[in-house]
Specification:
- With 365 residues, this protein is an alpha/beta fold.
- The protein has one domain: TIM Barrel.
- It is built from 16 helices and eleven strands.
- The chain has an eight-stranded parallel β-barrel, surrounded by five helices.
- Strand 10, helix 15 and strand 11 form a beta-alpha-beta unit.
- The termini are far apart.
């Protein structure tokens, strides 16, 4: 028995099950995970280990609503590898134990990202070009959770057309600057070798709406996928992040459906991995704004779930109580009110968005 398995089983504790642990308020709301599972899909959300530990009501809601969780920050390089030569999986292990306790799956996020590189590593990448600086953490992370995770976000946000690359790659990434475009295939091969049976994802954002900058991003993403397939890189799936901005750009169902068909044409599975809706710029009236958010949620979900390649949907959070949208400068409300871009509000009560998601799962053919 590995240390990780032992820890997870200890955390499961005395035969306590999800149903006996849930608080009544969480247990009373129909489960989105069950709605998705009825159609052969997954529903889940991003969570933070600190919030799970400190907020019992929120933790109960996650256990009731989600079939899969993903760490919001615990497995990113800046937290796992703060110090050279040292690896800290404590936060990820806590969430894995929570998942085991409540019969949930877990994803890993993220192994290669342009952002959040620890300072010691940034300096090393400037001084040397050893592939081990890229692959050591990938190997260590994938081996640590080998056979236990549903999937890994190996590559995260690798395109940025405004940076000037002819194919739209993010050239200001420290990984591109150190290794060129080959870093993507190198990372995928390292992940596959360390964990042969876990799904390997590349995920990116701003590929859903009808706007010129998003069309350029869609084109760039498809070129990345084409490049990786030609290189025989072991990629299994694409993650549509799904950070919708309905008050900045129009959602076009046909355009988004075409993109999903193009992705699936590479033989890849698809998952919506970080779904939420930025509501800043919407009506001042909360009911009206909630109705808008629910409407675009239903449209987006209907198109997403219609793809035969779709595995499921994860929201980037579950409750507005803990949403990055309420803190990010472009999306937070100047008056300090919480963003309302997740299925449950700040009081953990279901919103029209949750109902729209449930209806979309129910309507899937």
């Amino acid at each position: 028995m590995t240390e990780l398995t032992r820890r997870a089983l200890l955390a499961a504790g005395l035969g306590l099950t999800a149903s006996t642990w849930l608080e009544p308020a969480a247990a009373d709301v129909p489960s989105l995970a069950n709605d998705a599972s009825a159609k052969g899909l997954l529903y889940g959300c991003a969570v933070g280990s600190d919030r799970i530990a400190a907020d019992r009501s929120f933790a109960a809601l996650v256990a009731a609503q989600a079939g899969i969780i993903v760490p919001e920050w615990e497995l990113k390089r800046e937290f796992v590898q703060r110090v050279e030569g040292q690896y800290d999986f404590g936060g990820g292990d806590d969430l894995y134990a929570f998942a085991v306790r409540h019969g949930l799956k877990m994803r890993g996020h993220t192994l290669v990202w342009y952002y959040g590189t620890p300072p010691w590593l940034e300096q090393k990448l400037q001084d040397q070009r050893s592939e081990s600086l890229l692959t050591d953490m990938i190997t260590r992370s994938c081996r640590h959770y080998r056979g236990r995770l549903h999937s890994w976000d190996v590559l995260n946000e690798v395109v940025e057309p405004p940076e000037g690359h002819p194919d739209g790659l993010r050239v200001k990434s420290p990984w591109y600057q150190a290794f060129g475009e080959d870093y993507m295939a190198i990372a995928l091969h390292a992940a596959r070798e360390a964990d042969p049976n876990t799904l390997l994802f590349y995920g990116d954002y701003d590929v859903e709406m009808d706007a010129p900058w998003q069309e350029r991003r869609r084109t760039a993403v498809l070129k990345v996928l084409e490049r990786l397939k030609k290189q025989n890189a072991p990629i299994d799936a694409f993650g549509v992040q799904g950070h919708l901005k309905p008050y900045k750009a129009k959602f076009d169902e046909d355009l988004y459906a075409r993109f999903l068909r193009d992705v699936a044409g590479f033989g890849l599975k698809i998952m919506v991995t970080e779904f939420d809706v930025a509501d800043r710029g919407g009506p001042a009236d909360i009911a009206a704004r909630d109705a808008d958010v629910a409407a675009i949620t239903r449209s987006f979900m209907d198109v997403s779930l219609a793809s035969p390649a779709m595995l499921g949907v994860l929201t980037w959070g579950l409750s507005d109580r803990y949403s990055w949208l309420s803190n990010y400068p472009d999306y937070k409300w100047p008056d300090g009110q919480l963003s309302r871009g997740l299925p449950f509000d700040g009081d953990l009560k279901p919103k029209p968005m949750r109902q729209a998601m449930a209806q979309a799962f129910a309507a899937k053919a």
